[in-house]
Amino acid sequence: MTNKIDLVDLDSKLQQEPPQAILEQALSQNQNIALSFSGAEDVVLVDMASKISADIQVFCLDTGRLHRETYEYLEKVRQHYDLTLEILFPEAEAVSKLVSEKGLFSFYNDNHQECCGVRKVGPLRKKLLQLDAWVTGQRRDQSPGTRAAIPVVQLDRSFARPGATLLKYNPLANWSSQQVWGYIRSHNVPYNPLHDRGFASIGCAPCTKSIGPGQHEREGRWWWEEATKKECGLHATNIDK
Amino acid sequence: MTNKIDLVDLDSKLQQEPPQAILEQALSQNQNIALSFSGAEDVVLVDMASKISADIQVFCLDTGRLHRETYEYLEKVRQHYDLTLEILFPEAEAVSKLVSEKGLFSFYNDNHQECCGVRKVGPLRKKLLQLDAWVTGQRRDQSPGTRAAIPVVQLDRSFARPGATLLKYNPLANWSSQQVWGYIRSHNVPYNPLHDRGFASIGCAPCTKSIGPGQHEREGRWWWEEATKKECGLHATNIDK
Amino acid sequence: MTNKIDLVDLDSKLQQEPPQAILEQALSQNQNIALSFSGAEDVVLVDMASKISADIQVFCLDTGRLHRETYEYLEKVRQHYDLTLEILFPEAEAVSKLVSEKGLFSFYNDNHQECCGVRKVGPLRKKLLQLDAWVTGQRRDQSPGTRAAIPVVQLDRSFARPGATLLKYNPLANWSSQQVWGYIRSHNVPYNPLHDRGFASIGCAPCTKSIGPGQHEREGRWWWEEATKKECGLHATNIDK
Amino acid sequence: MTNKIDLVDLDSKLQQEPPQAILEQALSQNQNIALSFSGAEDVVLVDMASKISADIQVFCLDTGRLHRETYEYLEKVRQHYDLTLEILFPEAEAVSKLVSEKGLFSFYNDNHQECCGVRKVGPLRKKLLQLDAWVTGQRRDQSPGTRAAIPVVQLDRSFARPGATLLKYNPLANWSSQQVWGYIRSHNVPYNPLHDRGFASIGCAPCTKSIGPGQHEREGRWWWEEATKKECGLHATNIDK
Predict the structure, then answer these.
(1) Cα–Cα distance for residue pair C116/C204, rounded to 1 Å
(2) Nearest 5°: CA angle at C231, between C230 and C234?
(3) What is the pLDDT of residues C6-32, one digit of tens each?
(4) Residue B227 has pLDDT above 90, yes or no
(5) pLDDT at residue C81 tops 50
(6) Residues in chain A within 8 Å Cβ distance of B195
(7) What is the mean pLDDT of residues C26-42?
C-alpha cells in the first residue's frame, strides 16, 4: 500500500465509506497500527474501534498541562472500554529547560510551536517510530484554515521511520461536528464534561478556552495566533501544503 | 391598529422588514411601549433601540434567583447604554408562601409553572397593565415546540387590560441565532458571560444549564420537562395555540 | 421578665450555661419565640433546638441575592430536620425602587445600609412584630468591632412592638468558632459547602467573599467598609452602644 | 560542619534565631545551596532570600499535575522577584509506565507513595545530587503526625551523595502559620490565590483539597490516608524517625 498511486485510489474509495468501515479496513490491513486519542470528541473512534476488536492500541499525549477534567475523562474512558491506554509524557529535560528558561507561559509571547514541540510532537514522534499506521480524529469541518482538504488516508511523511512508510487514517474526515455528536448521544458514549461548558475543541488548559454562540470551534485554541497556524505539529502535513 | 384584520396585514408587512425597521415602527406608533429585556442575547434589541431613541422604556424581571453573572450583566447594560432599566421584583407574600410551604426547589417536583407564575408572570402582568404595547426578543428558531409560528406583531390577549388592546412585537422573530450573534459581534454589544460557558438560553439559575455541542438551546431550560411546555408564561399565547 | 433588673440577673445566670441550656430556657419561657437562621454555621442552633422540641419556629431571610449554594443548603436543612422553615422575602416595591434607581450594586458606592434595610431589616421587622422573643447565632468572637460585648439575653428595643417587650437570646455568645465547628463535626450537622471554600461568614453573594489564612472572618463581609460598621441592621443594638 | 556534634550545636544555636538570620547563615556558609519552593506559603523564604542576595538558586517540582492557579502563581513569583526559577520535571518513561499501567489516579487506591516517588522524589533526588545544602519551608505546626520535631538544620541522609554530606535547613521550623501569614500580609508578598479559596496546604491538584473552619491544614492533603503517612517523600527523614 506504500505506492502513491494506490494510496490515491484507496483514498477515493474510502471517501465513500462511513467511519466504521474506514476504521475496520485500517485495523485489518495494518498490523502495527494505533489510535491517537486526544481526550475530546474523537472518543467516537475509540467507541467504534472497541466494537471492531477487543484488542486495539490506543495512545494519548499527556502534556503535563491538561485540564483536570481531561485527566478524569481519560481515566473514565480507560475504565469504560477496559482499554490499555498508553499515556505518553514529554521528556523531563526538554520541559525543564524550556520552562526554566522562558517560564511556564512562554507560548503566549513566542507562539505555541516550541511548547507543542516539546510536549506533544516529541513524544508523538517517538511513538510513531514504532508504527506502520496511525488513526486520528481530524475532520475537515474543524478548521477552514488548515483542515479543509484532509484526505481519509494519506502518507505521513513528517513522522515516518527513515526508509519506511507511515500511513495516517482520518476516518472522521468527512463527518461534521453534528454527526460526531449525533453518534456520541445516540450511543451514550462518555464525553469530556468540558464540552458542556462551552469547550468545542479541547487541548492544553492554558491554550484552550470555551467559545460563545456563533464562534468557530478553532477560535478557542491558541486564540492569540492566526487561524492558519492553528496546528500543534501533530498534523504537520496540513500546514506543509 | 386594534383591528384584527389590520393586524394581520401589518404583520405580513413587517415580516419583510429587518428588526431595526420593525422596532422603529413599533416605537413610533405606540406611545406607551416598553422593551422587555431578559439579560440574554435579546440585548440586541436594547442596542437597536438605543440607536433609534435616547429615551426608551426597558424593563426586566429579577426573579430573585438569577445567576450572579446575570445581575452583573444587567448592571453592565444599564451603565453601557445609560439606560433607565426598570427592574421588576416578585411580591414578598407570594414568594414567601410558596417557598415556606414547598421549599426553594419545588419546581423540580411540581413543574415550573407555579414558581414562574409568582416570580415572572405576576410582576410582568402588573407592568403590562400600564402599557399599550411591548417588545420581546422571541425568535422562531428558539423552540421548535412552542415558538415555530410566532408572528412579528400580535395581539397579546393574556396580559391586556380589560377592554383594551395590548400589542406585542417580536422584531427578532425571523432572525436566526446566527444572525443575532453576528450582530452582537459586529457591533461589539456587551453580552452575558454565561454565553461563553455553554449557556445558550438564560433564565433563572436553578432552571437553566449549559448545553453541549449538538444540543438545541431550549434543552438547557427546565430540562426535566417536556419540550412543548417550555414557556414560563410570559409568552402564554405561544402555548394556547 | 420584662423588668430590666431581672434581665441583667437572667443574663448573668445564663452566661454560665451552655448554649443548649440557654436555648432550652428560652424556648420554655417564651411562647411566641422563633429562631433566626442565616444559612451559615448558626445551624448548630437548629440542631440543638430540634433535639429539644419537634415544633420550633425557624425563619430565614431570603434577600433575593443569596449564593446558589446557600439556597441549596437552606433546602437541605429544611429536609434534614423536617422543619417548617419560614422564608421571608423583601417587598417588591422597595426592591424595585432601589435597584431601578440606583442599579443592582449600589451598596458598593453608597454603603450597604440601604440595601440591607430593604432586603433584610424590613422583612425582619415585620416578622418580629409577631414575636415575644427571638434567638440568634451571634457570637462575641465574630466581630471585635461590633460584637465584643453581646449579652446572652437582652432587650431588643429596635424591633419591639410599641409598648411591648421583645427579648433577644444569643445562646452562642460565649462560644468560639472552634467550639461551633467542633459541635458541627462531632454531631454531623449538615453545613453550607461555602465554608469549605474559604467562606467564614456567609451573607449575600455580592457582599460576602472568601478569606485567606490569618484573616478575621468579618473581613469577608462588606470589605470595602470600616470594621465598626459591619452590621446589617438585624443587630442594630450592637452599634447603638 | 559535617560533624554530627557540631550540627546539634548549630541547630540549638539557630533555634533561637529568626528565619531571616537562619537563611542568611545558610546562604553564607554553603556555596552550593538551593531553596526548594513549593508554590505555597513558603514563598516567604523566597522573599527573605531575595532581600539577602540577588543571586539565589531556587527550584520547584512541577509534577505535571499542579493546579492551574499554581502554574500561574509560579510564573508570577518568577517575574515578581526576577528569579531564575529552575523547574524540575519527572522522567517521561517513569510517568508513562505508571499511568499507562495503573491509570491516572492510582494513588487513590494504592497510596500516594508510588506517584510521589515518580513525580516528586525522583526529580528532587537528581537535583540534590548537585548540592551541598538545601532549604525548605517545613514548619512544626504543619503536621502533628510527622513534623512536630523537625530541627532548624539537619543532615539529610536520604538524598546525600554517596560519601558526601547534604545539609537541610528549615528556617520556618518554629514559625506558626499565623507568623507566616503575618509576614506575607505585612510585606505584600504575592501568594497563591488558592489560599483564598480554603486551601491551607497546596500540592498536586488531585491530592489537595480545600478545608473547612476548624480543620487542620494537613487534612486537605491525601485525605484518604492516615495522618502519620502524610509526607510525599521529600522529607523522608520525618517519617524514618
Answers:
(1) 10
(2) 170
(3) 898 999 999 999 999 999 999 999 999
(4) no
(5) yes
(6) 212-213
(7) 96
φ, ψ (nearest 5 deg) of residue A191: -130, 160
Question: What is the per-residue pLDDT across D163-187, written as a single tens digit (0 to 9) for each?
Answer: 999 999 999 999 999 999 999 999 9
> ipTM of the predicted structure?
0.93
Say if residues B42 and B136 touch (Cβ distance below 8 Å).
yes
Give all chains having 3 or more CB-to-CB distances under 8 Å with chain C. Answer: B, D
State the pLDDT confidence band at C240, using cuts at 50, 70 and 90: low
- Alpha-carbon distance values, C235 to C88, C124, C157, C159, C170 (Å): 17, 11, 10, 10, 11
> Which three three-digit cell numbers place residue D183?
509576614
**A60 catalytic, yes or no?**
no
Residues 6+ apart with CB under 8 A from B129: B159, B161
**Can you point out the beta strands (E) in D146-194?**
153-155, 167-169
When comparing pLDDT for A1 and C32, which is higher?
A: C32
Domains of chain B, residue spans = 4-192
Question: Between chains, do D71 and A96 touch, taking CB under 8 Å as contact?
Answer: no
pTM (2 decimals)? 0.92
Question: Which of A91-105, C87-101, C139-153 is the least confident region?
Answer: C139-153
Determine the distance in angstroms separating the CA of C215 from the nearest CA of chain D, rounded to an integer: 9
- CA B163 remoteness from chain centre: 25
Q: Are B181 and A213 an interchain contact pair (Cβ–Cβ within 8 Å)? A: yes
Share of chain D above pLDDT 70, in %: 97
Q: Are strands B57-61 and B85-88 parallel, antiparallel or unpaired?
A: parallel
Helices (H) and strands (E) in chain A — how many of each? 10, 6
Give every CB contact of residue B220 below 8 A, 6+ residues apart in sequence.
B199, B200, B201, B208, B209, B210, B211
CB contact under 8 A, B103 and C79: yes
User: Does the pLDDT of residue D3 top 80, yes or no?
Assistant: no
* From C100, C105, C123, residue closest to B87, measured CB to CB: C100
Mean local confidence (pLDDT), D188-192:
97
Instruction: State which residue of chain D sits closest to C195, comparing Cα positions.
Output: D212
- Non-local (6+) Cβ contacts of B99 within 8 A are B106, C62, C87, C89
Q: Are B103 and B95 in contact (CB under 8 A)?
A: no
Separation of alpha carbons D36 and B61, rounded Å:
55
Taking contacts as CB-CB distances below 8 angstroms, the residues of chain A near D79 are: 103
- Residues A90, A94, A95, A96, CA torsion sign: positive
For the segment(s) A4-192, the CATH number from 3.40.50.620, 3.20.20.150, 2.60.40.2310, 3.40.50.300 is 3.40.50.620
The whole-angstrom distance between C210's CA and the closest CA on chain D is: 6
Question: What pLDDT is stored for residue A58 in this prediction?
Answer: 98
Classify residue C28 as exposed, middle or buried by CB count within 10 Å of its CB (0-12, 13-18, 19+). Answer: exposed
8 A C-beta contact, residue D222 and residue D229 = yes
> What is the pLDDT averaged over residues B100-127?
96
Mean pLDDT of A140-162: 88
Predicted pLDDT at C241: 47
Contact A62 D95 (CB under 8 A): yes
What are the angstrom distances between the C-alpha of D40 and each of B72, B188, D158, D212, D236? 32, 40, 24, 18, 20
Distance CA B227, CA A140 (A): 33
Smallest CA–CA distance, residue C195 to chain B, in Å, is 19
Write the DSSP string, B103-128: -TTTHHHH-THHHHIIIIIHHHHHHH
| pLDDT band at B241; cut points 50, 70, 90 | very low
Cβ-defined contact of D197 to C177 (cutoff 8 Å): no
**What percent of chain B stands above pLDDT 90?**
78
pLDDT of D151: 94
For residue A229, give every residue at least 6 positions away whose Cβ sits within 8 Å of its Cβ, in sequence order, or none: A111, A222, A239
Q: What is the pLDDT of residue A241?
A: 47
